[in-house]
């Protein structure tokens, strides 16, 4: 029992339904995040928040940190589970719990802290994008990194205490920090190219993007590689580093 208590414990707040490819190949999006972030001796739990599964308030102190995943829902939406998630994130902020938000997770964190999220005026960003990173961050970031992107919403405005730590030609807030305990990343450090190709196909099938845009995106993705190892180091360093 004592050994169990000493284990680092993390929770994934799963905001998406697993596609067939991701479920069969990676054990779902939870498996994708565990593959990137988990280390031996840790406990990782999943809460399917898009289905209304949330940790109880008295469980929050048991966790070293939480990760919020991407989603096909809008972070500026008003579904009941989104409002419940906003309330949870405000509680986690109030107790200085480590929280890492990815894509939708990045956006919903911005909203929970008082920022504004909206549709990007320049439309979808799908592919592998080079982003610029701030040299002033305590994370000791490189000046540029490539990351997989798949979004049409973005954080338009952050609260005054938040610090923008990365940006690109397409999106003004690619990453932000809020204190030492909250970080958002607009791109997908956890994605592999096959996950992105599968998403492009699904977006095309459901008429979210046009066939020609999809073809162009696939060709560009095939030409570049994301800096996955660097992103893994950044995410692990933030989530498991000291406050």
UniProtKB/TrEMBL annotation:
Domain Glutamine amidotransferase: 34-192
GO CC list: cytosol
Keywords, ordered alphabetically: Cytoplasm, Hydrolase
Subcellular location(s) per record: Cytoplasm, Cytosol
Listed InterPro entries: ChyE-like, Class_I_gatase-like, GATASE
Pathway as given in its UniProt record: Secondary metabolite biosynthesis
Keyword Hydrolase among record annotations: yes
Name recorded for this polypeptide: Glutamine amidotransferase domain-containing protein
Species assigned in the record: Arachis hypogaea
């Amino acid at each position: 029992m004592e050994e169990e208590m000493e284990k680092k414990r993390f929770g994934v707040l799963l905001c998406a339904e697993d596609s067939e490819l991701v479920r069969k190949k990676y054990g779902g999006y939870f498996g994708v995040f565990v593959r990137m972030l988990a280390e031996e001796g840790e406990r990782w739990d999943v809460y399917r928040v898009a289905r209304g599964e949330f940790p109880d308030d008295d469980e929050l102190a048991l966790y070293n940190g939480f990760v919020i995943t991407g989603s096909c829902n809008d972070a500026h939406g008003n579904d009941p589970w989104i409002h419940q998630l906003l309330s949870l994130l405000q509680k986690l902020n109030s107790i200085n719990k480590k929280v890492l938000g990815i894509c939708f997770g990045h956006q919903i964190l911005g909203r929970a802290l008082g920022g504004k999220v909206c549709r990007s005026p320049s439309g979808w960003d799908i592919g592998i994008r080079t982003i610029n990173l701030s040299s002033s961050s305590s994370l000791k970031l490189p000046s540029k990194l490539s990351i997989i992107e798949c979004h049409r919403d973005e954080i338009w405005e952050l609260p005054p205490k938040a610090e923008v730590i990365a940006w690109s030609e397409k999106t003004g807030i690619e990453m932000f920090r809020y204190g030492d305990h909250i970080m958002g990343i607009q791109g997908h450090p956890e994605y592999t190219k096959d996950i992105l190709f599968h998403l492009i196909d699904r977006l095309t099938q459901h008429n979210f993007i046009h066939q020609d845009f999809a073809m162009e995106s696939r060709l560009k993705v095939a030409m570049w590689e994301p800096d996955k190892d660097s992103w893994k180091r950044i995410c692990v360093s933030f989530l498991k580093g000291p406050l």
